[in-house]
Amino acid sequence: MTGQNEAIVAIRNLYKSYHRESLTVPVLHDITFDIADGEFLALMGPSGSGKTTLLNLIAGIDKADSGTIRVGDVDITTLTETELAHWRATHVGFIFQFYNLIPVLRAVENVELPLHLTGLSRAERSEHAEMALQMVNLSHRMDHYPRELSGGEQQRVAIARAIVTDPTILVADEPTGDLDRVSAEEILGMMERLNREMGKTIIMVTHDPRAAKRARVMKHLDKGYLNDNALQNPL
Amino acid sequence: MLFKILFRNAFRNRLRSGLTILGITVAILAFGLLRTVISAWYAGVEAASVSRLVTRNAISIIFPLPISYKEKLRQVEGVKIVSYGNWFGGIYISEKNFFPNFCVEPRTYFELYPEFILSPAEKKALLADRKGCIAGEKLAGKFGWKVGDTITLTGTIYPGTWDFVLRGIYHGRDETIDETLFYFQWDYVNETMKKKIPRRADQVGFYIVGVARPDLATEVAVAIDKTFKNSLAETLTETEKAFNLGFLAMSEAIVMAVQLVSFVIIIIIMAVVANTMAMTTRERIGDYSIMKTLGFGGRDIAILIFGESLVVTMIGCALGMILTFPVAKAFSHNLVTFFPVFNVSVKTLYLDVAASIVVACVAAVIPTQRSISIRIADGLRRIG
């Protein structure tokens, strides 16, 4: 698919640093690359290489020092906090390492949560949420609270929440980092299907080479530098 | 959905929420009781009528006025009715049984005070018996008096032992009326004094003047005092409310102290709730960050934190308000002599609610500000 589809994400000359008191710690240096529409990209690299920071920047939950990030037709680096919040609600689905479900909400309510920022009616929201849970094979657990679900099930709920708004991109930060091998395989399989069958663009940060192998393209970050071109995954 | 989250969040840590609610309940109960004490202090002022004036000796209440002023008072324009009486200061069995007792001219006095409800038969019996007396329902209940009982008071201002026959038990027209008072005939005291200490006879401690038009009360008061200007006993006439307030002015420092303590309680509970909210939001910073990640804004986070603070505080407030009634009743029963009218007023309940809302909102301000201003990436880092 890479090379055939248009870029859905275009990153140009991106710089990011953190400030700790008087210290400035550079995190990302002059990052430039594209992510094609329908791509499944794995961002790899050692701890502290800046991959999560890059993911956060692409997802609009952090601000770059300089450079541009264009997602679709929007340069998100020019958006205000409020505009970014609106943009995230409709364009980005998030999958985190620790699932990050709201503990006081049932599975179906967690999935429904992002839909409250849309103009959907209550019935439509329920319908969409139930459908999303069906897609991750969790219809039978929709009334359970996160504490009543296994790690793998919680991550599937998180995936359902991520896809329920039909976002432009899915970002996943170590989605299998807290799971056993079987659950991890299940989650990766699910993400792979979302990419192949539904054409979802997925950007995944991972340490795990096994997880990275499920992606179609891999990129490596080291000390804030993108040190190679996109590698086509032989699998 | 936000309301669902905030209600469930409020009871996520049941022990902490329970203890906080308990603290608020106790604080609101204490606040309500202290405010009721202040209301009880001012009950006499609140019950005062705008159509009644009190005339006393201009030098001090402890100096009497001659009974001869009665007719002159009646002649002042705007005066409708005149009654009079004395503070008797009698002791029933022992000093610890204190209750206010007055000798009055009953025919006019009870016409001026229609809020004291007596049956016509009781009124008739009181007027017919020179040694007759009446007592309020609470007072009679406290000592187990029944109509026909003989009640003996030991005089302090008027020496000797004084026997009275209870001819009636009055009750108040409404709950703001003092039902711990004891009245008997001024003539009984005066005639006894004529025999025992003649120089102290024909003197009254105060006149109660009923005015024809309440809006002219001030003018009538001025006219009364003008009438007795340069006489042997000059008068000071004021509205009943002003007269009662004058008494309260003597104990203003105590009222101020009670008021201060009531507000200190609110400040303490504000600190407790603020601490709870600070702990709560610190624990939930991850949740709030997730919500911000999903696109929820600062306003939504503020609704969650303020809402949770309000839920916890208002539950405590409601429990405190409910408990105030039985506790106030128990207080009233035991302290009837000091606070004859000890009712939880609607104003006190409004103050309870207002104080709770202020506590909830103030306690939520800083946690909300912190939760909104934290960077999403930093908030998410705290999960796991």
Which class of secondary structure composition applies to the elements of chain B?
Answer: alpha+beta
Series of H and E elements of chain B: HHHEEHEEEHEHEHEEEHEEHEHHHHHH
Sequence stretches where pLDDT stays below 50 over 5 or more residues of chain B: none
Quote the average pLDDT of chain A.
88
Strand content of chain B: 15-25%
What are the secondary-structure elements of chain A, in order, as H or E? Answer: EEEHEEHEHHHEHEHEEE
Task: Count up the helices of chain A.
Answer: 7
Rg of chain B, Å, rounded: 29 Å
How many beta-strand runs of chain A?
A: 11
What count of domains describes the coordinates of chain B? Answer: 2
The backbone outline of chain A, from C-alpha atoms, is: globular
- Write down the Rg of chain A: 17 Å
Give the count of structural domains of chain A. Answer: 1
Give the N-to-C terminal Cα separation of chain B. 25 Å
Please provide a written account of the structure.
The complex is a heterodimer of chains A (235) and B (384). In chain A, β9 and β10 form a beta hairpin. Chain A has 7 helices and 11 strands. Helix content of chain A is 32%, strand content 28%. The two termini of chain A are 13 Å apart. Chain A has one domain: P-loop containing nucleotide triphosphate hydrolases (Rossmann fold, 3-Layer(aba) Sandwich). Chain B is an alpha+beta fold and 384 residues long. Chain B has 2 domains: 173 residues, no CATH class; 142 residues, no CATH class. In chain B, strands 1, 3, 4, 5, 6, 7, 8, 9, 10, 12 and 13 form an 11-stranded mixed sheet that branches.
